[in-house]
Specification:
The N and C termini lie close together (about 10 Å). The chain has 3 helices and no strands. By secondary structure, it is mostly helical. The longest helix has 17 residues, at about 60-75.
């Protein structure tokens, strides 16, 4: 199943609407995270790119991730 392109206007509006409809007591549709935990989890990627809040992966971790991702794509 292909993931939708989040950079299209239609999909980005759907995502924004979904995020705006969240309440602190919203129940997860899948997984176990609360709304606060999920939003914090989603912010980590932003923080890694735009802030110096999280340490960058070292050489070994970069190598491992690149190898894993490359091999994972070969399975499809």
């Amino acid at each position: 199943m292909a993931l939708p392109n989040i950079f299209t206007t239609e999909i980005s509006h759907e995502l924004i609407q979904s995020i705006n409809s969240l309440q602190k007591d919203s129940q997860p549709l899948w997984g176990k995270m609360s709304v606060a935990q999920m939003l914090a989890h989603c912010c980590v990627t932003y923080e890694m790119v735009y802030e110096e809040k999280h340490p960058k992966p070292n050489f070994f971790l970069k190598f491992f991730l690149k190898s894993f991702v490359k091999n994972y794509r070969d399975w499809e």
